[in-house]
């Protein structure tokens, strides 16, 4: 198939593009290569993608309505995997307009392209952050997600609503994937595991929020990608006799579906740091701090419907995944 992957120079986007090409698909990847974090990482990912037969890169802004429309006019995509977004909970406190431009306007432009070209399946990245103030664990896709605690989370919830409206109005099959704390080699420097590793190896103190008493469902990047490519071919169908009063908000009378993709085995931050220390062979100097604005106490994914529908659930152990990341980090930064 011919597949569009947005955010192709990003962490998840690069690994997804690589997997799709290896499966024999043709991939056009787009990215704006912004400087939200070290551009050399994005360029490094592109360097190994550009060596693959079947991958083609275009640099563009999602908010460029005419540019996105031209991309869809010039290509017939069988699938669109929309992974591009302005990421980061904390950055959304400082630069909220970046989230409107990319996560709302950009999302709309991509959906418009899918609608006009009648793309067979629109798959997009949502986030576990949409669960917000919900304290029911593990998080289920049937749960209410009406109380986000960051603008980033609010834009991801908005994406799910926007996708449903297009599924309902234009019968555009859409599937949203709520990712849970993704980590691994070539990851994002703003994520805790990456910044902790850098600080520990430099002998600097790490900030441990809520005194380490937070739980996260850390999910290895290969597991995320496996979930994406399996879901890609699971085109959602309208549910007969479904009503808004149904207990399952992840489905609809429209061709619409939501899945969690998480390791379904949450780890306390303190245990996570201990595992990272073992992988590095260095003990961290810790500065314990209270909870940060926009953070939640715990995340945990119920992935029963993912397992039932596509026969897969993430299962990479944290120690194994962090070990791979640490080896990559030492090699990449020569430390």
What are the key terms here?
single chain, 335 residues, alpha/beta, two-stranded parallel ribbon, 11 helices, 13 strands, globular
Q: Helical element count?
A: 11
Shape: globular
Query: Regions with pLDDT < 50 over 5+ consecutive residues?
Result: none
Query: Strand sequence of the main sheet, in spatial order?
Result: 3-2-1-4-5-6-11
What is the percent of helical residues? 40-55%
What is the average per-residue confidence, as pLDDT, rounded to a whole number? 94
Beta strands, count: 13
Would you list the SSEs in sequence order as H and E? EHEHEHEHHEHEEHEEEHEEHEHH
Terminal CA distance: 41 Å
Question: How big is the Rg?
Answer: 19 Å
Largest β sheet strand count, sense and barrel closure: 7 strands, parallel
Strand content: 15-25%
Structural class: alpha/beta
Describe the structure.
The protein has 335 residues and is of the alpha/beta class. Helices cover 41% and strands 17% of the residues. The protein is built from eleven helices and 13 strands. It has helices spanning 11-22, 39-49, 65-74, 91-94, 96-117, 151-170, 192-201, 221-232, 269-280, 304-310, 318-333, and strands at residues 2-6, 26-31, 55-59, 79-82, 121-127, 174-179, 182-183, 205-209, 215-216, 219-220, 256-261, 267-268, 285-289. The strands form four sheets. It has a seven-stranded parallel β-sheet with strand order 3-2-1-4-5-6-11, with helices on both faces. Helix 9 (269-280) packs across helix 11. The chain is globular and about 55 Å long. The model has no long low-confidence stretch (mean pLDDT 94).
